[in-house]
Each structure stands twice: as C-alpha cells, then as structure tokens.
C-alpha cells in the first residue's frame, strides 16, 4: 500500500499516488473512449491508482462525489486480487460493541466483546442487554453438533435405471472419491457423500471438514474433481457443479436436517429473579411470547425461521468479521425455544447451518481482521478448525443474546399492558 | 482519508480530538472501574471522542489494535444516535462497480453503475458480465408488481369463538383502523389488513405504503396504535407487536404469496447469437441448467429460493446502499426462470419481497449515501416512493445480471464437457 | 343386494343377472381376443352385467377370486357413469362410530355420531375418547373463517412486461370475468381473483363460493371460460387450466395463507379436573407434549402439518362420507395448539383448507350417503352451503377429538414415566 | 354376500344371527339407558351380532337407515379386533381397474391390472390411458432407492449441554440400541439412528427394515424400548414416542431428504410418434406444461408436491389395497420431471416416502386382500420384503401413468388452443 508508510492515500491527493496525474488523465480518456475496459486498470496501474482512477471515472460518469468511498484505510493489494473486482473504494459500516458476554463453549471460554457492523439503530443496545443477562446467569452454554461444508453437483442421467446405477456406483466407491478429493487440498477432508435422485437428476451432496476456512472454495475445487470422476465412470452428464442441494445462500430444509457449516446450539438458564430484574417480565410471559410468535406465528406464515431476529445478529457479526454476507441467509435459519423450568426459563437458539471461517474470504481485510482479533480468532486455529468453531460459538451466543433481549422486551410490554388493563378493571 | 482537516479525526492522533488526553484518561479509568458504562460515553463526550475512548477501551480490553476500525471518514453525529450504539468505528467493505447496465423500468430508465460491497472474489466480475449481456440485449425489463411494508401483531384470545369475533370486528372496522394509523404518520398509509387465526392466536397483518422509506419504523409505530385499538375494542390481548406473520427477516411463504416490500420482477431476452458470443453456450443448455439446478434442485432440497445466487447481489447492493443487511434474507427469496423462445431464451427473476428504501436507516451514512447518489436515488423521490421503487428496479436488474452470468457460466462448462466427451467418443 | 331382485346381483349367481351366461361368455372371449376394450363393456351391457363380466375377466387374467369385491350392495347405475370407470366391484372399508360428540358450531349444533372408515386399529377408540372429553367439557366451539374453492390457470406470457399487462388487465376487468363465470353455473359464484407472477408465468387464482358442493368441477368449468377470456383479451397463452397455485391435492403454503375449501377452526376448554379424570395427566404436561412434538418437532422436520394425527380423522371421515380421499392431503394440514389457562387448557385445531361437499362426487354412493345422513347433512342445505359447512364443522370437531386423545395419551405416559422415575429416585 | 350361508349375515335377517332377537333388544335397551357402553358390545356378543346391534342403535339414534353399511361381506372376526372399534358395517368404495400396465422393476416384472378405489369420475380412465402409453413405450422402469420405516421419539433435556451428551451417548451406543430393538421383534431390524437437536428437545430418528409390513407398529414397539433405554442411561425425559420428526402422516421435508417407507422412482421414455398418437401433443409442449405447472407453479405456491395429481392414484390404490389411507399424505409428496430427449421425452416420478405393506393393517380385510392378490403381492414375500417392494413399484408406476395422462391431456389442450389461435391469425 501506497508510499507513505502511514496510511495509503485514498483521498486523491496527487503527491501520494504512485502514478502521475498526467498518466491518470490519459487512462481516463481511454476509459471514456472505450479503448480501455474498466476492469483492465489493474493491469497497467498499481492497485491504489487503479482504484482511484476508476473511482474518478465513475464520479464523472455518475456526476457524483465519492469522497467517502475513497477514504478507506485498508491495504487493498490483496483485496483487488481476491475480494473485489472493479474496486472503487469501500463503504464504511458502523461497528458497535456488545458485551462482554460470557461464553461456556468447547472452543470459546470466557468473556468476549461482540463487534456488530450495522446501521439499524437499537440493535447493538438490544444485544448488549442480552449479553448482560447472560453474564448474570453465569454464561451461555454452547455446543457444536456437526461440522461440514457441502457442495452438491447435479448430473443428468438417461433414465431412472441409470440414476440407480450412478447412486450404486457412488456408494461403492467412497474410498475412490475420497482419494480424488485428497489430491486437491491439503486442508479439507471429504467426510460425507449422500446421493439424491429426482427422476433423471442425480445430486451427490459432498461434505468436507474445512478446518478454519468457511471452505466453499476448497470444497468446490475438490467437488469438481469428484464430479469429473463420477461422470467419467458412470456416464452421468455433469450439468452444474452446484445443483442447489448443497444448499448455498438459499434457505433450505436440507441444511436444517443434514447440517451445513458449523451446526451450533446455545442456551442459558435465567432465574425468576433475573427475569424480573433485567427484563421486567416473568417466565410464563416469556414462554408465551416465544410460543405465539416464534413457534405458532412462524409456522402459520410458512416460515423457515422460528426466531425473533437472529438475522440481525448474524448479518452484523458476519459483516464485522469478514464473513460472506450472503451467508447470513443460511446462518439465520435459527429456532429459538424457551422452556419453563422450576427455577425460571431455559432459552436456547439452534443454528443448524452457520457457515463461518477465520481464514480466507474477507477475513484478511484490515478492519474485518481487527474484529476477528478482538475475538481472538484471527487466522488458523490450534488445532486447525478451532478458531472457526470458536467464532461459531461466539456468534451463536450473540444470537442468543439478541433473542433473549427482544423476546424479553416484548414480554415486558405484554405484561405491562396486561397489568394496565387489569388496573383499569378491563375484562380481558 | 486523513490530513485535510475537513474530516473528523479518526486515527487517534491526539491533537485533533475535541477532548483532552487527560480527560479521556479519566474516562477510561472510570470504564475500567465499572463506575461508567460503555454506552454512557456519549452523554459526557462528543461523538467522535466517545467513539475514540470506547475504541481505546476495547483495544485495551482485548489487547488488539483497532487502527483501521478507527480510520473512518463518515460523519458520525447522526450515526451514533440513529444507526449504531456503542460505536467504536467502522468496517470497510470493498466496493466494486458492475455495469453500466441498461434498465427499462417504470422508475429506472437508462444506464446505471451498480455498487457492490463485497469480499467475495469474482462476484463483481460475474455481475459485470451479466450487465454487459443485458446491454447487448437492449436492456432489462423491470416491473414492480406490488408495494407494501407489513407488520403483524399477534393477539391471544380466549377461545376460537373469540378469535372469530376479533376477525369480524377488524373486518368491519377497516376505516376506523385506517384513521388510527393516519394519526401516527404523515408519510405512511395503511393499504391492507388481513387477519389470520391459529387456534387462540390472532394475527392481524397490516400493510402500508411507506413511500421512499423501507418503512419498518413507521409501520411499527402505526401498528402499535392499531393493535392497542383492536385490543381495547375486542378484548384480545396483544402479545407481541410482531407476531412473525409480518414476516420480517425470516424466509417465509407468506411474503412470497402476499408480497412484502417492493415485489419486483426483471427479465431479458437473449438471442441465440448473444448466448453464443457472450456465454459460449446455447439456449437449450441454459434452460437445462436452470431447470435441473434452480427448479428441480431447489425443490428437492426443500429450499425457499429457486435461484443460483441472488443473495450475493442483494447482500452486496444492500450493504453498499445502506439497506438493512438482515433484509437480504427477505430480498433474496428469488425465483429464476429461463424459457426457450424461437429466438433464444427469456430469462427472468422474480423477487416477491424486496424491502428497500432511500431515506432513513443506513441511507444517510456518508459512504452509503454516495452509492445511492451514484444510482440517482438518494433521499425522497418525486413523487414520493419513486426513488425507492427505482432502487428496487435497479437491484432486481443486478440480480438478473448475476443469475444470467452464473447460469451462463455453468452452461458453458456443461456444454464444453459435453463436446469434449463427444470428442473422446464417449457414450453419454 | 340381498335377495329381493330389485337391487343388482353382486354375488355372481347367474339367475339374477340381466344378461345370459352365453352372451357374457361371448363378451369375455372378445375381451380376451382384444376385439373389445374393457371400458367398452357398458356400451353393450347393463351396468351390473358389465361390472360382472369385467370382474370375471380380471379374475381370469389375474387368476384371482374377487368374490368380496363383487359383493357390493350399492346401486351402481350412477356410479359407473360418474364415479368410477372400468368398475369391477367395491372394496369394503370397515366403519366404526365415535361419539356422540357435542358440537357448538354455527351450522352444526348438538350431538353427532362420527362415522370413521378405517382399518387402523385403535383410531376409532381414540377419537371416541376425545369425543367423550369434549362432551364433558360442554362441547366444542367451531367456526368457519373462510369459504372458497379455487382454481389457478397458468398462462405463458412473452415477457415480464406482458406479465404486468395481463395482471393489470385482470385487475381492471373483475366484473367482466365475474360475468363470464356466471354464465357457466347457477350454483357457484366467483368471489376472488388474485394474480401471481413468476417470470413469464402468470397464475390467476380464481375463488368461488360453491355452496354445498366441494366444487372442483363447477370451478374448473367456470375457470376454463374465464381463462379463455383472459387469453383472448391479453394474448397470454393458457398452458394449463390448473397451474398448481390452486393448490389441489398437494400440501401448499398458499392454501394455509389464502384459505381453500372451508377454513375451519375448532376448540375446547378442558378443566384441570377433566384432564385428570379423562386423560390421567395434567395441564402442563399436555402443553409440553404439544409444544415439543407438534410445534418444535414439526418445525424441525420441515413439516407442513403441526398436529399429532389429524390425517387419520380427516381420511377416515372423508372415505366414510364420500369425499374425495385425495383431498385428505389438503384437509389434514392442521395446526394444533394447546394453551395453559387459569382453569386448565384450551385445545384448538386450525384447518385452513378443508375441501368438503354434501352433493356431487362420492356423496351419492349408497353407503357414503348413509354416513352423511347419520350426520344430517346429505344433499343440499338450507340455505345452500349450510350442509357442507355443517359437515366441515363436524369433521373439524372429529379432528379435535383425535388430537385431544392422542396428545392426552402421550402426556399420560410421559407423566407416568416421570412419576415412576421420581419414585425410583432417579435424577431427571 | 347374502343367501349362501357361508358368509356372515349382514342384512339384518334375524334367523341368521347367532344371538336371539330378544337378547338383542335387551342389549339395545341397556345401550339406550347408558348402562352399557357402545364399545362393550363385543364383550357379550359375537362380532357380527355386536356390529348389528350397534348399527341398529345408531340407526335409531340418528333416525337413519344404514342398510348398505350393513351389507358387507367381509369376515369381521379379525376386523373388529384389529382394524376398527365400534364397528357398524362398511362403506363400499367403487373399484375400477386400469391397465394392464407393464412394469420393469426389480421386484415387479410384467403386466399388472391396477385396482383403484375411487369415486372421482375420470380418474380410472385417465390412469388407464397412461398405462396404455407405458405399455406402448415398452414398460416403465422402476427402482427402490431406499427402504426404511421410522419413528422419532422426542426427549426433554435440561440444557443444550445435556442435549449434546445425549447425542454423544446415542452415537456411541448404536450396538446397544440395536440389541434392544432386536429383543422386541423378529421381523424388523434397526438400520439407522439419527439424532436431531432443537434447544432442549432431542429427537432420535430410528429407522427399521420392516420387510413386508408397512411397519409402524413394530417400529413403535421397538422404539419404545430404545427410548426407555436412552432415558435410563442419559437422564433425558421421554416426552412423546412420536416427536413428529418421524414424520408420520404430515408432509415433511425430512421424509423427502432422508426417505421414509419405500423411496421409489419410476420413469418411461416416450417417442415423438407415441406422444403424437396417444396424447395428441408434442414433446416440447409436455415439457412446457410440466415446467410451468409442476415445477414453477408448485414452487410459487410454497407446495411440498411437484406433481399434477399423484395423490389421486396413491389414495385410490391405498384404499383398494388395504394401506393406511392417511399415509396417502406421505406417499403423495411426489416430484414429476419431464426431460426433452433426442427421441421424445423421458417422464419420471420420484416418491421419496411411500409407506406400504402387504401384511398387517388393512391388508387382511377380504376385499383389500383380493386387490393385493390381483397384483400377486398378498402376504409375506420371498425373500421377506419382496412383496411390499413389489407393491411400491406397482403403485409408483400407477402414479407415473396418472401423471403422463394428465400432463398429456393438458398439453394437448394447450397445443390445440395454440393451433387454433394461430389459425385465426391472432398475435400471441
């Protein structure tokens, strides 16, 4: 990055860029005349210059000032290669902290400050209140129930007889296919092969242990090799490396049932006293709100999420921590349960398909890496996979905090209204 | 950023902050001793100072440098009030541009450069290719089919007889309830009331025209008043202002069927020649990929999205444009269809629940507002609602570009493999 | 039946058939040689003879005695024309009665004996116990929340612009389409038109009040005319008169959300005392079983039914009462809720899509009509529609009885085990 | 029936009953006074007499003649014990035959006449046409992809930590649990154990090979023992033996993904010539109808079935063959696919959860057994399981015939309309 040793220059001050103003003007002229493509800038310019010229071009094309977008501090050398083509700068998403939250996981132990990148007012405050309650309750239990990233190529076959032959071949050649996968990656490991048939469509859902990576890339590369082998040996035609039974970035029952990413569950027991003090409500009302809203309401709506607002926490932590934001869709398919217990309530969140990683993707971008560092999970873990699992445990705890807080708030209002109505002598 | 004195100082250089170092040290000491709460900083410090002190506190607590997170340029006066509590800085999400893409909508006309905030390599390039194809095809058709933001309070009733009475009362007092809503907002307008019953649970799904706002806030305020009125008049107990039949931030069939936000559909006709030149495949193969992957695969997976990667574009544009990132979950429940036509294919994306706005929420944050300005949709439209609808049309076109490109790429690989296999004389 | 010569002879005794043995032998020979088709028998033979000859042919072809299948008593003159082609006889499905059950509906008042056609041991006994509890509780409340049978033709359009045009045309020509429907039926009445778009697919969901008929036939006839009109006026191509958004005989969220058939809800309040005496359990345990099994379990399974065994009662009463047995799929998408109340529990079943009728279809078959008569709902009601709605109310009450009984039984076992474990001093 | 002395007397003629008229009158009086319960009749009377007295009682209570319901021929000795309590007689469901249909399965080979018990006019004729097409095409391919009946008890645990302990215990004690199952049944065999967690709810989905039985009974008995063992060893509380993740008689994604009963797929290739001759349409139109209706329409409706009318055939064959009619819900969750091929189309139906048996349940009832005999599958197979699988293959072929026929009919109409419109020179 860019010449001055402190920050790179992002504001267009000529002195700090590696390319002269004249040269940039020539490039801009070429862009405008169409003799140079916008994505070709990095071929002839240093990353920072390319981004600046591109931004200026867009400013001129759209007659807009992109001053703030240009005011980034992150080192973009790797970003333009790995994370973002045609880069013009960065958006700044405000980060608030909630916590500390006490986590009793198998990978995450102790207190953590949760970074939440969001523009939705009240979200951080809400999660913060949940974190406080969790702390008072002695911490959240968290467990990872399953861990595996998947890809499911789809093949076209000639007939359902052929479909059965392909399935049979796959089921009797698991070792062969594991060997094929092994050749493509030193990090990932093939852990599951499940075939599905729909008429002449055969889907082979491949599952891998991807250690600290979210892993879609390594999984896709390994799956391509496996798919080629299957095609070659069975005569099935590979139609698409992703056949949507993976299922990536679409809410899908298969992910809930088979698990995908880090299947994580978190829970906490709240005493009657704590419920009264922190949430100004009572156990029965919390249970009622959860049942009528999160269970009955979601069921009646034909929803695939049985929670209050898990998506808010998942999205905010994913953006902060350099996760793939589109994966919030998979990650947020959460079920929140609240049981009445002799001593209060037990609240739990179940996240069957939370795809997270601490290496690769956006985890290396400057600001995102700082968030991961705040959580002590930047980079690869020891043993491999430990960091990604720790991150999953922390995010699940954040989701639990958010659920606690919102359900608690709704219950408090409900209880308050009920008291008020009773006070007014109204029949309910 | 840095160095021009116009922006706030975010990099921790002492001289530029409004509060003295001593004062900050005292505050830090109070935080550490617990006599001051982290969220109370804004009460005694200017926003920028509060954020800096809080960040320093977190740096010290987590033993982490948060230099980049502190290096923001956006004006945070409003942000700390409206968008993010306990702010410590911002994450920088790289923004690439795709386009220009030619849009033939009812609100968006002409060429647009799409800002995509993402760390997923290849995404911008992929969307870019789709935009190019759309341009060569004469532009994408886009239409908004329905427009309404919803909230569905859940009430507890005594019996199913009571449930029917509540439903009947609501259905005969639509005017009354519209009047109640009118009193709470000058912008929103109640446009629909649909009751649902599940045993002793009554859900009243309220729909509003929210003009240029995404609108959850105004809708929630109006719904609270309406819910109180219903409770008062019918004796139903209001359990939660959101009963999950809204459905907000959970994938839900009700949103697909009733619509939510801006229900938008976009399509484009590609000629055989264009398919060959741009995508290196043919019409039949594109149809086959779409059918086997997006229709059959998703159906077989029990998925609620019938698309290739709509979530990528929705999430990237939502983050860039200051939309609620958790709404990507609603927005991405897209269906992609590809028809074989006499001249090639017609590709369409249907997004029944795309919740977007150009005022409120994160739209006022500096970098996000610049992205909205790039699209010519920052702030309120003329007439009101026109900007938000224009944004929805542009995002839908971006999704179309992404789908075109990925399906095209899969089809090209499929076709290439098929040719290769034929070349080897293999039976398929 | 039975020796009087007035009814058809079903037992194969030659003397009683209208056709001579020789003639039958000739016909059989033609069938075997292929010069006569099996379905052509009714053209040359009286219904009873045709059925007998066909049965003999099948007996000979399959080397099986079909003595019992031939031993029917129902008058088959209309059956062979309206209900069943290529008839060879009838299967006898055992009918048990449960009840009487006390119904407090808007159409059904008083006690009813429920006919259940089933071969599943314990089902009738289970429903019977539920009926008894309902009686002791003062009867079940039942209400119909919505009533309408639907058909949704699917049209292909040229583009999404065309799709919007079709939708707009339909929405501005509701009166025209209602007039078209009117011309096809004196019984049914068009009550709703809702368009849906998925790319170039336009679905027009037409809803009708079908009075006492289940109504698919009249609805289909009227829909055909309407679809032709839409095609003629808009240039949309009608692809299929049923486009699966109806949705008929497939479990579908749209039916839960929009309603289909008779949307019915039934509930009953059980006192603590009654729960103890009849079900040997307690209120909290019933609530727990319902929550963990019917709400959480179904949600976790990705199920579209949130009940214990509604399908058993719906199927058994449908078969007994001459309803379309395949409609049990629609009818059984039931949600069971159990609330803890100050006095015990309130149990309710919600059946959003219960398609039933008392005229047409199988309702005229001898045995089935007797079952309808048992319930006082055979034939058309006064006013029209009253009988079908009464039947819906009774069936919903039967479902409630079944749910009560099974959940009660599970709760009793659960409670017993808990006591036993406590008795053994086991930690739970 | 009637007049030969061999069958039981069902028509109320006094001379033939085993109990005197006086005695019956006394019993009736007791029933009316309430001193005798309706279900107690079999304790003091022979089955036939008990049924007759009960029917007379109901006739008198409902003021209805139940002549036809009383006119059954089946031997009810076992029926009243095993299939139906409180029996009053039987309904007669007309049976038509379709076929013969040529099946190329692994268990079913050759031609079969399909018995369909239905009152829905045109159904048998429709299936018949499909059978004819299948025959002309050389028969239907059928394969069973998975075979296992399931039960999933739900346990309550104290915390998510406890949940993980239970899961771990189960996964490390598979042999123990298999041994427990073995002790309860000589027929069934435990073949799978899959644990699922939702907060404090632990579901253990147990899968069994049930040979020729549909198997719910043996599975439930074995599951009860296993559940007790789990509860004893882990401290988990067994809440319900069926926790709805089985999933029985509710449409559920888990059954599609994991399979339940006999997961069966059937397909057939139709040549262009055959499509023209039998269906009066063409290949492209069949594909279009299937895509727009069965794939896009069902997806847009949030449906769990992607077929035209699989439920009709499943329900009709289930009723004819003594299957549990409520299982039509599980059985009918079918996906129909139609591929364009160089020579025409390949049509396939995929039925992932078809629960059928040839022993137990209603398979022993006289008429139903005759239907099973027609198909050569009555009783246990050789090897065990072969008959039930053969039945599954035949039913799947019936479903295929039904789908072919209805899609073909819709396509023919579509094509005819298209031609007509073209003939009129209309713009489409």
Structural account:
Four copies of one chain form a homotetramer. The first copy, chain A, is α+β, with helices and mostly antiparallel strands and about 425 residues long. Helices cover about 45% and strands about 20% of the residues of chain A. The first copy, chain A, is built from 15 helices and ten strands. Chain A has helices at about 20-35, 40-45, 45-60, 75-85, 125-135, 160-170, 175-180, 215-235, 255-260, 270-280, 285-300, 310-320, 330, 365-375, 385-425, and strands at about 85-105, 110-115, 140-150, 155, 190-200, 200-210, 235-240, 260-270, 335-340, 345-355. In chain A, strands 1, 2, 3, 4, 5, 6, 7, 8, 9 and 10 form a ten-stranded mixed β-sheet that branches. In chain A, strand 9 and strand 10 (about 345-355) form a beta hairpin. In chain A, helix 1 (about 20-35) crosses helix 3 (about 45-60) and helix 11 crosses helix 15. The longest helix of chain A has about 40 residues, at about 385-425. Chain A is globular, with a radius of gyration of 25 Å. Residues about 1-15 and about 425-428 of chain A have low confidence and may be disordered. Chains C and D meet through helix 3, helix 4, helix 5, strand 1 and strand 2 of C and helix 3, helix 4, strand 1, strand 2 and helix 5 of D.
């Amino acid at each position: 990055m860019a010449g001055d040793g402190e920050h790179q220059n992002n504001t267009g001050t000529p002195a700090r860029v590696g390319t002269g103003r004249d040269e940039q003007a020539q490039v801009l002229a070429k862009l405008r005349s169409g003799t140079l493509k916008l994505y070709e800038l990095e071929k002839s310019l240093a990353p920072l210059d390319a981004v600046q010229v591109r931004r200026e071009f867009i400013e001129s094309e759209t007659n807009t000032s992109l001053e703030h977008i240009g005011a980034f501090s992150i080192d973009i050398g790797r970003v333009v290669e790995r994370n973002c083509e045609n880069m013009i700068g960065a958006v700044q998403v405000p980060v608030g902290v909630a916590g500390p939250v006490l986590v009793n996981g198998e990978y995450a132990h102790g207190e953590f400050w949760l970074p939440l990148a969001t523009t939705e007012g009240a979200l951080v405050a809400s999660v913060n209140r949940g974190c406080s309650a969790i702390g008072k309750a002695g911490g959240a239990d968290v467990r990872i129930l399953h861990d595996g990233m998947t890809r499911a190529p789809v093949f076209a076959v000639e007939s359902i007889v052929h479909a059965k032959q392909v399935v049979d071949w796959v089921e009797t050649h698991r070792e062969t296919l594991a060997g094929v996968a092994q050749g493509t990656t030193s990090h990932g490991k093939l852990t599951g092969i499940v075939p599905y048939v729909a008429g002449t469509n055969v889907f082979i859902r491949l599952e891998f242990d991807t250690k600290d990576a979210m892993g879609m890339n390594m999984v896709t590369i390994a799956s391509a090799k496996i798919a080629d082998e299957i095609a070659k040996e069975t005569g099935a035609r590979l139609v698409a490396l992703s056949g949507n039974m993976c299922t990536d970035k679409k809410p899908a029952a298969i992910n809930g049932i088979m698990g995908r990413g880090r299947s994580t569950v978190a829970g906490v027991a709240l005493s009657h006293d704590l419920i009264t003090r922190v949430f100004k409500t009572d156990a029965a009302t919390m249970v009622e709100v959860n049942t009528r809203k999160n269970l009955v309401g979601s069921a009646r709506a034909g929803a695939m999420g049985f929670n209050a607002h898990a998506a808010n926490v998942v999205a905010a932590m994913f953006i902060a921590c350099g996760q793939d934001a589109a994966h919030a869709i998979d990650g947020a398919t959460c079920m929140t349960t609240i049981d009445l217990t002799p001593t209060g309530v037990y609240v739990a969140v179940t996240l069957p398909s939370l795809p997270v990683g601490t290496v690769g993707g956006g985890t290396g971008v400057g600001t995102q890496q700082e968030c991961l560092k705040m959580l002590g999970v930047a980079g690869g873990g020891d043993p491999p996979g430990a960091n990604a699992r720790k991150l999953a445990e922390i995010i699940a705890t954040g989701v639990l905090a958010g659920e606690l807080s919102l359900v608690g708030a709704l219950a408090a209002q409900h209880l308050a209204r009920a008291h008020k109505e009773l006070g007014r002598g109204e029949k309910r």
